[in-house]
Amino acid sequence: MSQIKLAINDFSFFYGPLQALKAINLEIKSNEIFAIFGPARSGKTTLLKSLNRLTDLISQTRHTGTLLLDGTDVYDEEVDLVRLRRRIGMVFDLPTPLPMSIFENVVYGPKLGGITPKNRLTEIVEKALRSAVLWDEVKDRLHTSALQLSGGQQQRLCIARVLALEPEIFLLDEPCSGLDPISTASIEESLVQLKKDYTIILVPHNTQQASRVADRAGFLLSGDLIEVGTAYQMFTKPRDKRTEDYVTGKFG
Amino acid sequence: MIHRTRYVTQNIAKTIVWMAALSTIGVMILILFQILREGLPVLALHFFLDPPRVMGREGGISTTIVGTIALTFVAALLGAPLGVGTAVFLREYAGESRLSHVIRFGTDCLSGVPSIIFGLFGFVFFVIYLKMGWSILSGGLTVAAMILPTVISTAEEAIKAVPYSYREVSYSLGGTKWQTITRSVLPNALPGILTGILLSIGRSVGETAAVILTAGSSLIMPTSLFSPVRTMSVHFYILAREGISMKVAYGTGAALILLVLLTNLIAQWMINRYIRRRS
């Protein structure tokens, strides 16, 4: 339960001359929900995207320090990017269904990995959609366009799409930012269920959301990791003055 | 008072843009009307099916229709993959490198070169130097080179318009660059790419100067890629220029317009169906 899944050591990240992360040290345990919160432009998305190296897509970036996934640096030359991204799945802040059917969206990843038997894909789709608490709503229209789903359904579809790959770590970047309270509640519910099988790193939509679902949390401010603690402690009696100011709404 | 001036300005502006639009459409209708009025009476089934006789003064235009379709087909078959491939390279692989600037500058220059220059190049290079002679292949290659800039720039725009998030999602789900391009980027850019190819096909169907120098003007039914052909537009040009038969010339013109119209309608229908199926 308390095994270290991900160890971030002195990790800094730069976009050209701009330093987005400043010597971050953090350990994430297996099967926990860890919330990274902080004001806009504090480096939350950069931290998530550097974990599965989606930052590689941006030119002129560099890093120092290490990100150890089960003891291996994700920036190691030996690392296979395709495999890494299958182990660390990501859901983005806005729902990003691809313009194809619900079914095709879910099997996009498995198909890239070479799974083609129809019945195998059908199983994957049902399992993933059930885990994302979307199956009952869409089971009769799997072959209609994903773009016709509501925002909340689209976001759960994106979660299902990642689940179909059976990753080990699940990154969620403000997955509820464009959603109504009911959709938000159903996504939070699925997250708590998913914790059994996955390690989840969540950039929450707001501090309330972090306090509802997270086990532990870290406060990020201008690229500095200010403080880490249990979610309860962080949101009720933060040790650092800056965390307290942010949590109580004095800035942000 | 101010109110009134604004009102007048508004009306003047509206009149001007309306007149601009109407005169554009007017000119177009005038041209179409003239050609169809003279040409449609000539069109009959045998006009399409019979080969030309007596230099084209009598008979039909069957060999020129075959020539046009064959040459356009070769041009599109060579030009489209090359152009789309270049566009993919420029947008997905080259980035903002010196090489991509050179290629863009090159294609921009090419698109401004008059077609007769392409014809001259095709004549010297394909017809003479590579010994392909006046043929469908020489003509097709020349026209392919001519349409490349259009295919490249429209395909590039279409690829650029595919949201970054589609790529990011594909990579995040474990896609390689190639998988991302073929499964996420290109399917979404396809309607735009096809529209560009369609424009180019229209251009190759109507091209005369470059074709007359590279495909020849033979009226005999082509039997292979190495046969010389006379395309419809070349036929039209020769019939009218040498005063052989204005009647057949107009008939050929009308048939050409119908061919282009038909191609466009079918292609548009296919593109729309593709877009509807995906959303």
CATH architecture of chain A: 3-Layer(aba) Sandwich
Given helix and strand content, the structural type of chain A is alpha/beta
* N-C termini distance of chain A: 34 Å
- Total number of beta strands of chain B: 2
Instruction: Supply the CATH class of the largest domain in chain B.
Output: Mainly Alpha
Coarse morphology of chain B: globular
Total separate domains of chain B: 2
- Unreliable stretches of chain B, pLDDT < 50, 5 or more residues? none
The CATH architecture of the largest domain in chain B can be given as Orthogonal Bundle
CATH fold call of the largest domain in chain B: MetI-like fold
The Cα radius of gyration of chain B reads 23 Å
Name the CATH class of chain A.
Alpha Beta
How many domains comprise the coordinates of chain A? 1
Estimate what percentage of residues of chain B fall within beta strands: under 5%
Q: What helical percentage do the residues of chain A reach?
A: 25-40%
Q: Major β-sheet of chain B, in short?
A: 2 strands, antiparallel
Low-confidence stretches of chain A: none
Tell me about this structure:
The complex is a heterodimer of chains A (252) and B (279). Chain A is of the alpha/beta class. Chain A has one domain: Rossmann fold, CATH 3.40.50.300. Chain A has helices at 44-51, 81-87, 102-112, 118-131, 135-138, 151-163, 181-194, 207-213, 231-236, 241-247; strands at residues 4-15, 18-29, 33-37, 61-69, 72-73, 88-91, 169-173, 199-203, 216-221, 224-230. Chain A has a six-stranded mixed β-sheet, with helices on both faces. In chain A, strands 2-1-4-5 form a four-stranded antiparallel β-sheet, covered by helices on one side. In chain A, α7 (181-194) links the parallel β7 and β8. Chain A starts with a strand and ends in a 5-residue tail after the last helix. The relative contact order of chain A is 0.17. Chain B is mainly α. Chain B folds into two domains: 2-42; 47-278, Orthogonal Bundle (MetI-like fold). Chain B has eleven helices and two strands; from the N terminus they run ααββααααααααα. Chain B has helices spanning 2-39, 45-49, 62-94, 98-112, 115-129, 136-160, 164-172, 177-206, 209-214, 232-241, 246-278; strands at 52-53, 58-59. A two-stranded antiparallel ribbon of chain B has the order 1-2. In chain B, α3 runs antiparallel to α8 (177-206), α6 crosses α8 (177-206) and α8 runs antiparallel to α11 (246-278). The longest helix of chain B has 38 residues, at 2-39. The termini of chain B are far apart.
